[in-house]
Amino acid sequence: MNNTISIVLTWIATALSLLVVDLIVPGVNLSTFSAALIAAVAVGLVNSFVKPILSVLSLPLNLVTLGLFSLVVNGICFWLAATLVPGFSVHGILAFIFGPIILSAVNAFLSNYLAQRSIDLNLTGNSTKAIGE
Questions:
Q1: Is 68 exposed, middle or buried (0-12, 13-18, 19+ CB in 10 A)?
Q2: Beta bridge partners of 88
Q3: What pTM was computed for the model?
């Protein structure tokens, strides 16, 4: 059950992060919260299955550019996820480059926050249960 809660919290954190990206980055558009939830799944799936393949194929370019080409790989994955989800679009070079960067930063913050709150709630729940017994 803890694993299920962790997955749901990650999903919600990614959806909320996408909404923040929608607010901050010009060219990233999300029409509804449900589109953000679906986009969060699409981003996760693209990052899990497509990004490793693109990273291996672009390794020579990444070596030559000292890792900067990974920004392009992240942008391609972000754009690909947007093409799969109605109500989620990415237009322009700023959205292509900065969208994944902002998404990653906000998602890391929210995931850490939610994980910490979950730990705090579990500790509080365990201590009250121990006191009540």
A1: exposed
A2: 30
A3: 0.86
